[in-house]
Amino acid sequence: MRAVHHDRRKLGLLLSTGPEHANLDTVTRLSNTAQRQGHDVYLYLIDEGTRCLDTPQISQLPKQGAKLFVCAFGAQKMGVPIDSRATFCGLVVLSDLIAGCDRFLAFN
Amino acid sequence: MAARHILVLVTGDPMKSARPGEAIRMALGLGSGTHRVSVVLRGPAAALLFPEAEESACADEVEKYLPSLAEALDPGFYVERAALEGRDLAESEFRIVPVDPPDIAKLMARADRFVIF
Predict the structure, then answer these.
(1) How much is the pLDDT for B80?
(2) Do A95 and B117 touch (CB under 8 A)?
(3) Nearest residue to A74 via CA among B9, B70, B117
(4) B-interface mutation test, from A77, A91, A92, most B Cβ less than 10 A away
(5) ipTM value of the model?
């Protein structure tokens, strides 16, 4: 069961490194922990980070409630198929996340 | 939504990687709305502002996005002073503001958000 807290906050995460980088593990753990504590998590994959979409760590995040966004331009460049696994979008969405989240952390 | 001051710190080597070009594209995208964007170039990333960038791994991004980003930046690109040693600023067509590491720390502290590429 998901904990509900009165001080629920929005955590924005940006990941721009590929699956081979330790950032993937850090982002996954951070996301899981934040969600367990009742916070909302918004993850944006950009550049090489779009390749992480295929990893089990990232693909399980939406099932746990995280909102997953992927840079469509980056995905196209990296040969990542655009499908229903995530919301493929442009930098306007990243701009909105930066504006709207209480905390925003970039892993590059 | 609240407008933020976003600092994009670019450290990668454009002669070896396309990532600095992606940082430039991202900075332009983030700055095209309500946010104010500042860009700091450290180390080899300074090459983005000089003619050699035409031969870099992100030459396309430099050509497409850098001029528009430059117009949006006030007062210009912040560039680590040490990265400018041996360079002639007149060879760059962009406004360059040399900064030292303490200045970069202040810029980061003043920004609402920062992204390191």
Answers:
(1) 97
(2) no
(3) B117
(4) A91
(5) 0.80
Count of all residues that appear for chain B in the document? 117
Facing A104 at nearest CB: one of B29, B32, B113: B113
What is the CATH number assigned to the segment(s) B5-116? Answer: 3.40.1260.10
In this complex, how many residue pairs, one in chain A and one in chain B, have their CB atoms less than 8 Å apart? 47
CATH number of the CATH domain containing A58: 3.40.1260.10
Expressed in percent and rounded to 5, the helix, strand and coil fractions of chain A are 45, 25, 35
Contact predicate B42/B11, CB 8 Å: yes
Contact of B34 with chain A, judged by CB distance below 8 Å, is answered with yes
Domain of A90 in residue numbering reads as 10-107
- Shortest distance between the Cα of B91 and any Cα of chain A, in A, equals 30
- Residue pair A107/A23 in contact (Cβ under 8 Å)? The answer is yes
- Cα–Cα distance list, B74 to A36, B65, B96 (Å): 42, 16, 10
* Per-residue pLDDT tens digits for B62-73: 999 999 999 999
Within an 8 Å CB–CB cutoff, is residue B35 touching chain A? yes
Closest to A45 (Cα-Cα) out of A63, A31, A64: A31
Residue in this structure with the two tokens 């990333």, named with its chain if needed: B45
